[in-house]
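Here we describe the complex-level prediction in full. Unlike the single-chain runs in Section 2.1, the two entities below were treated as one system.
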Amino acid sequence: GENVEQHPSTLSVQEGDSAVIKCTYSDSASNYFPWYKQELGKRPQLIIDIRSNVGEKKDQRIAVTLNKTAKHFSLHITETQPEDSAVYFCAARGIGGATNKLIFGTGTLLAVQP
Amino acid sequence: ETGVTQTPRHLVMGMTNKKSLKCEQHLGHNAMYWYKQSAKKPLELMFVYNFKEQTENNSVPSRFSPECPNSSHLFLHLHTLQPEDSALYLCASSQPEGGAGNTIYFGEGSWLTVV
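The structure predicted for the assembly as a whole is:
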């Protein structure tokens, strides 16, 4: 089955700096890669996603890149702000078969220091 | 308001108790999920239901028993749990496999403590 690894587990940056979180996946059939943000005590919420027919997607200060050959994808946050502090989860999902499973990475705790 | 509501938000139960977690979605989705979130662990998929039918059981112990009476409601029945089952249990919904809208929407979760 799919296995997703995420690094780093914790990341501390100064306000205004960029943050990069990286994930690798094992199932070459996976073709959907969302990123979720979970603030303390709240539900995970989708912030951006990318499908395998696209190499990069950007939404304001957030961007995701995908390298299908290497089976890795990354989240980039520019001009970080204190409200970006949260746990970020990457996930991968395959298409086909009897189930629609989303497999998550272990999460990255991002702390933006003001 | 994401359209996925879970009750109760907090539950403390003894190892011999029987309790249930409830999830309801108002998004018109036909797939529903249970995930378990423990400290320092990834979100672990437990069960998947598509159109009320269970399509995935991720080797979950039988002390967890899901029920999906319709596409809008999902239950997780709990009995004879262990302290290591204490965690945040997240319900989620989405359009089913192959649908155009693959985004999974989570509920707020039910914090379970087993004593």
